[in-house]
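> run fold Gfo/Idh/MocA family oxidoreductase
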Amino acid sequence: MSGQVGAGVLAEGRTVRMGLIGLGSMGRHHARVIRSVEGMELVAVADPYGDRHGVAGDLPVLPGVEGLIGAGIDAAMVAVPTWSHEEVALALCGAGVHTMVEKPIAATAESGQRVAQAFADAGLVGAVGYVERCNPALLEMRRRIEAGELGALYQITTSRQGPFPGRIADVGVVKDLATHDIDLAAWIAQSHYERVAGEVTHRSGREHEDMVVATGRLASGVIVSHTVNWLSPLKVRQTVATGEKGAFVANTLTGDLTFIANGDVTSEWDRASAFRGVSEGDSTTFAISRREPLLVEQENFRDALWGRPSAVVSMADGVHTLRVVEAVLTSAATGQTVTL
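> ok
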């Protein structure tokens, strides 16, 4: 689950001429962030539907990807609807433009594989925008697990719930939100998914599912579970990693990380102690430097272009996550656990 994409393709320190296609709910934030990243310059934007959020500034709003390419860009950020990812990414690849595509990499795993293969064959930097990997709490959790502070990792559970996002029209909750948790669980554990099972519901009257519960096992033996919906009035973003020495709890809404150690205090109540595998020990909440995840994500992309060590998410990882996403939907439709 390495994010390192490969050797740099631009001279170290050279300003990256960036293009952005898609000026919607995510694109507007990318426009702001790209302008604030040292070593990046936003030189062209495109959206066939115009600039409804007013983020183009002095730049003309081009009608599509060909105009973006014609502006002489080095690299591009793709924030168009999911169904357009393959077409836009392949056009950029054909023009020799290094590209980061918003998650998921494409509408289907087959489509995503074509994109990933094209960028690999062309020797271009291709990345996927899984911004949760840049959340400060999750970055710190992964670092501490890798350093051995949890001992053996046993289980990862995630909960991502909240009100319906009006921006979503072309996919359901699995491809829009659960894809984050599927990606980050494999990334935290540094292991791919081996099998997965899922259940979904359709409660909002839309074509696509709006709730999912998924469980699975990674190749390393770590078990995972994901509860995701966008019909809850309660907004929750939590990831819990449980292991030999205790549990890390990441609140990705606030960027807080807490470690709850396995204690060694013996219960005086015999019946209670018979039921307890471990006891609750000290709880520590860490002071973490909080930087905007989207800013870190663009810095990672820039670093990959410059040949610096980079945690950018590879297109290969993006394809694996999409295969797991599709397996969850297949499992929900068939009632069968799917082996990857």
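The chain has two domains: 16-132+295-313, 133-291+322-339.
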